[in-house]
Every structure is written in C-alpha cells, then in structure tokens.
Amino acid sequence: MKHLIDPGPSRKGWHRLQTVLKCPRLYALKYLADTPASTMAPAEALVKGSMIHVGIAHHYALQMDEWKGKEDQLLTPAEAVVELAERQPGGVRAAWLKYVDEILEVLAAYQLHWNSENWITKAVEHELMVHVFDEERNESVLYTQRVDAIWEHPISGKIYYVDHKSAGRWSGRSLGQYSISGQMVGYQMIGQAKYKEKWGGVLLNVIEWPKSGKAPMFTRVPVEPAPYAVANFKSTILHAEQMVHKYSDREAMEWPGAFHGGACWNFGPCKFLSSCQWGGMK
Asked: Within 13 Å of residue 95, how many CA atoms lie on the same side as its CB?
C-alpha cells in the first residue's frame, strides 16, 4: 500500500497554546475532555486547504533524496488528494469528495506554474522541536511546530521554512497579519537558533483559489521580520503553559471561559457555545 503523508499537528505546538490563550475553557474541552467527535464537516476553507496541502506535500516529497528509487511506494500528489478525502469518516466524506476535482485542477496548475523552480527540498511536513526553560517551575518545556517544507536556496544556500497558504483572495493586507502570528514567530525563533547565518527566513507559498472563471494565482512572499516578537516569544510560550498547569486539576467546564466575540463567535459560533450558555457537555 502506498504511503500518504498526513502527519497531523505537532505534539506540543502553537495551535494548542493559541487555543488556551484564546479561551482556557475551549482548550480544556478540545484537548482534555472526553467530548464526542463532531459529526459536522469542517468549514470549506479547512477542507480545501487540507487537500491542497497534502497534494503539495507529495509533490515536493517526490523531489527528495529520501524517496529516490522508492517513488512507487509514495502516493502521487493527485492520488494523495483523493486518498485524504476517502479516509474521512462516512458522515463527512461526501463533503470532502465534492471538492476533489477542483483541488486536482488547482494542483495541476500549481505544478505547471512552478515547473522550472530549483529550490532544494530538505524536508516535508517536518516537526521542529525546542526546549524552553521555565524558571518559575524550574523545568524545561517542550515546544514543537510542524513546518510544511524546508527549502534551501540553490544559489545562496540559505535555509527557509515554507508555509503553504491557500486563500480565496490574497492582498498586501493578507500578508501583514502573518508577521506577528505566533506560528510564524515560532518558525523565526527556531530557524534563527538552528541555522544562524544560514537562516533565510519564513516564506509563504500562497495559493489563491480561482474565482469568476479565472485561473488560480500563485505567489511567494517572505514574512516580514518581527525581531521584538521573536525575542520575547519564549515568555508567551511559558505563559500559555503555566495557564494549562494552573487549571490542570479542574474539570473542563470549570476552566474560565473567555466570553468575547473573538473566542465565542469567530466566523460563526464556537462548537462548545451551548455548553457555556447552558452548562454541561453539549
């Protein structure tokens, strides 16, 4: 059986810390409580983003030395997209399958557009790992992030962490939000420490979905530097971990709720909104 690159989130990554900073109770309900699996399909953007991600991951994996001579053991990019959709639970599988043809068209256009690129792919879906020392608790805290790809520039030899971003519409305003994103700040923190003078930065590999009968658009842009945020990011990691530790002996519904629009109703209701509204696990 051919291999599918679908590693999921990293072990101790930013998304979980972002969640506890957004709403401690959401963190407890999502990561600690025995809540039933959702029977609702994820949002369209998440479904399409997941499928184009896995297709691109296979596209670059096939360029790596790791798979040379073993290409027949790895799904092709197109096969990977279909396989990811097929692996979804029965109740939501149809919601994934309906986007397959669109994703395959965009993936083929992506491969054609970047056909002549000569970046050297060093890794795909790679988990980064650092330890951050917490002086208050006198212990080392594991922090991880999974990077979509690691590329080496063929001329300068600089190393870049690459994040694939799919969007309905891309603009300069879209780019601005990423310089201060914890995900990107974490990449910068780890990359600078690991590669030093060879560090090139974080590169957004943008896929803009086709609209109004037009072709998809592809662009690559470096994430703007945020040296102050990078220098202070360890304190943010520790603050979030200390919050998890502080409430760890409570039941999920006893963790404090955030009660603001950005947490409870961000592009639609939080899936645990009724629990906070009425109490209990709903």
From this structure: 15
User: Does 196 score more than 90 pLDDT?
Assistant: yes
Residues 6+ apart with CB under 8 A from 125: 5, 7, 57, 146, 147, 148, 149
CA distance 175 to 246: 35
**Report for 18-22, 260-264, 272-276: range of highest mean pLDDT:** 18-22
pLDDT band at 37 (very low <50, low <70, confident <90, very high): low
In angstroms, the Cα distances linking 12 to 8, 20, 82 are: 12, 13, 29
Question: Is the CB of residue 2 less than 8 Å from the CB of residue 67?
Answer: no
Cα separation values, 10 from 96, 134, 279, Å: 23, 21, 31
Q: Which two tokens stand for residue 203?
A: 């590169």
Give the pLDDT confidence of 47-69 residue by residue, as tens digits.
999 999 999 999 999 999 999 99
Task: Determine the Cα–Cα distance for residues 248 and 251; give it in Å rounded to an integer.
Answer: 8
93 contacts: CB under 8 Å, gap ≥ 6: 85, 86
- For the question of whether the overall pTM of this predicted structure is more than 0.85, the answer is yes
Amino acid identity of residue 245, one-letter, is H
Phi first, then psi: give them for residue 106, nearest 5 degrees.
Answer: -65, -40
Q: Looking at the predicted structure, is the pLDDT value of residue 38 above 90?
A: no
